[in-house]
Amino acid sequence: MSAEIEIYKGLLTDIKNRVRQGQLKVNLAANAEMLVTYWDIGRMIYNQQRQKGWGKGVIPKLAIDLKNELAEVKGFSERNIRTMVSFYTEYSNFSIWQLPVAELETNTILQLSVAELENDAITKLPVAQLEVINQQLITKIGWAHHIILIQKIKDLPIRYWYMQQILKEGWSRDTLLAQIKSKVHERQGALVHNFDNTLTNSHSLWAKQTFKDPYIFDFITLATEFSERELELELVKHVEKFLLELGAGFAFVGRQYKLEISDKDFQLDLLFYHLKMRCFIVIDLKKGDFMPEYAGKMNFYCSAVDDLLKHETDKPTIGLILCKGKDKIFAEYALRDLNKPIGVSEYELTQLLPDDLKSSLPSIEDIEKEFFEPNNTPENEN
User: Fold this and answer.
1) What range(s) does the YhcG N-terminal domain occupy (predicted)?
2) Would you state the pLDDT for residue 377?
3) Cα(68)–Cα(380) distance, rounded to whole angstroms?
């Protein structure tokens, strides 16, 4: 009987996976069809504007008429139609739009898995093929994300990079806006590290794509003088936002994680496990600038975690030292001859106003008094 139950469970799992695959395929096909339609509408409007000399005034009229004649169809506001025209002009030369949607679904180049995006396999392709893939990435991105990318990112290669991250990380619109605001494309992989010397090529590339410099902790506010424990507590207090800044794949294991080594207790500031890289990550927080001795201490921690916690199928533990500042040369020398993979990054905080500056600012009561003073009303102005 137990064997039949296991067989049934396997069947149930297979069916659920197949249903999910089907749903994903339907959603991708629907999204691709919508994007092709919007691109084509943008093309028609743009060409008429060029050929007939119509100005921008045609768009408000189209928005009204389409709303009246296609009342059941959403998405034809004046603003959205203008974006359709921009969508066409941004990608007017792309051959991807000449393919039927059915071919978009089955085209082998489009079958980019998350793993392929994560290990950067597409960047090793010939330039011509890479350009085709970049074009085809567009069909996998939702319209709302496209609006943000067109409005915020003018450089096309950077825009492609954000498209890849949207697919890899599953960014919502709000997350995408936050990441663009923080210029995450400039921060990714910018840390000082020794990954090339301590990890395999594929794992080193993955690690460099995972870590950033600097990390932006704008969700916490600390006084100018703060302790490392205060920083640690604030990060854990806002662990969801902390994980979002760290990136997809980080799972929080614990703070002040205790390791017993030769009858002595050692505590790790923060311990994570990365579900995609399949390794532990030790984070050491420093309130000041990087010092060379921090690297040796982190090397010790990584060795201990590899011996005491790491499973035989896990990848080597990675250490990340987060400092308020760093001298790049110091950090490079400190990491050069260590045998454990370690990175050094800076972090940025939102600082509280100093007390002397606070005292110079008006209170809420002063502002209200000034605002509501009868002599300061518009009617009494000359």
Assistant:
1) 14-112, 133-187
2) 44
3) 48
The full set of domain ranges for the chain reads: 1-90, 107-181, 192-356
How many beta carbons lie within 10 A of that of residue 24, not counting itself? 10
Cis (ω within 30 of 0) for the bond into 214?
Answer: yes
Average pLDDT over residues 44-61: 85
Tell whether domain 192-356 is in CATH 3.40.1350.10. Answer: yes
pLDDT confidence tier of residue 101, bands split at 50, 70 and 90: very low
What is the band of 300 on the pLDDT scale with cuts at 50, 70, 90?
very high
CA distances to 55, 134, 144, 274 from 114, rounded to whole Å, are 43, 15, 21, 16
| Structural contact between residues 284 and 204, judged by C-beta atoms closer than 8 angstroms | no
**pLDDT for 24:** 72
Query: What is the rounded distance in angstroms from the CA atom of residue 220 to the CA atom of residue 168?
Result: 27
